[in-house]
Design brief:
With 150 residues, the protein is mostly helical. It has a domain of 93 residues. Helix content is 77%, strand content 0%. The chain starts with 16 loop residues before the first helix and ends with a helix.
Amino acid sequence: MADVSHRPGDIAGHPDASEMRERYAKMLGTRGVAAVEELVLLAGIYAAISAWTVHFAAAKPELALSNLICGIAIAVLGLAMSMAPERSQDLNFVVLLLGVWLIISPWVVSRDAGTGAILSNVITGACVCLFALVAGGLLMSKGRSGRRTT
């Protein structure tokens, strides 16, 4: 009869062991980046609904529409980046630009946006910019450390 019992052994002799180690290290290396990019997703969702949350949608519909479009774009980019963080380094720049747009849009889109709308946009835009910079920095540092080992 065949011996099918599982024996504890060393996997070092497995022909794909080095490839499996590299994949696992890459996956662990991008875990923090994905967490930051999930914060981008949440910030995008908030930016999209902020006009109704802060109650300026009726008074400033053009700013509400700008926030809705920008927030949806940020949320979609955050979702895409969290699903493939190793491929999303270029998207961080786009998210950074959208964060800057959130910061300046109350003055560009609306002449008198109101304190609540200004504060909401500036804080949300600053968070989006911060998250994009942190994720980009983490990806760059992971890329440098990966190049050193090879």
